[in-house]
């Protein structure tokens, strides 16, 4: 199969989308590690439906080695999410409004 520049560009869009999903999942993992570990007592004060916005600072000061590893990976993913579009001249607008014609691409993303 011969791939075109357009195929390559689509692959970059797909890569960024996958990384964005991974960032969200790693963020959830980091919050859960924090709330089950160092902030266990604080987490018991929350009621179902309560919300709190965590920032990088909440994770960076942790003494939990597991959280440090997950957060370091999350930060690398964030950097890739930022740099890939810049490197490939993809605007934030284009990325936010991009829709893939192939709805099954995520299932076969790495199979091609």
Outline the structure in words.
The structure is a single chain. With 112 residues, the protein is mainly α. The protein has one domain (5-96). Helix content is 62%, strand content 0%. It has 5 helices and no strands. The chain has helices spanning 5-36, 40-43, 56-60, 65-87, 92-97. α1 runs antiparallel to α4 (65-87). The N and C termini lie close together (10 Å).
Name a few traits of the molecule.
0% strand; single chain; 112 residues; mainly alpha
- Total E-strand runs: 0
- The number of distinct structural domains comes to 1
Strand content: under 5%
Stretches with pLDDT under 50, minimum 5 residues:
none
List the helices and strands and how they pair.
Layout: H1 5-36, H2 40-43, H3 56-60, H4 65-87, H5 92-97
Structure in a nutshell:
The chain is mostly helical. The protein is built from five helices and no strands.
């Amino acid at each position: 199969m011969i791939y075109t520049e357009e195929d390559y560009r689509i692959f970059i869009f797909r890569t960024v989308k996958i990384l964005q999903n991974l960032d969200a999942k790693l963020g959830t993992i980091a919050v859960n590690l924090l709330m089950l570990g160092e902030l266990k007592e604080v987490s018991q004060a929350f009621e179902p439906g309560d919300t709190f916005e965590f920032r990088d600072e909440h994770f960076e000061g942790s003494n939990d080695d597991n959280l440090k590893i997950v957060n370091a990976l999350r930060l690398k993913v964030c950097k890739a999410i930022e740099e890939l579009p810049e490197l490939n001249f993809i605007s934030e607008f284009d990325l936010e409004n991009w829709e893939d014609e192939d709805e099954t691409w995520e299932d076969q993303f790495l199979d091609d």
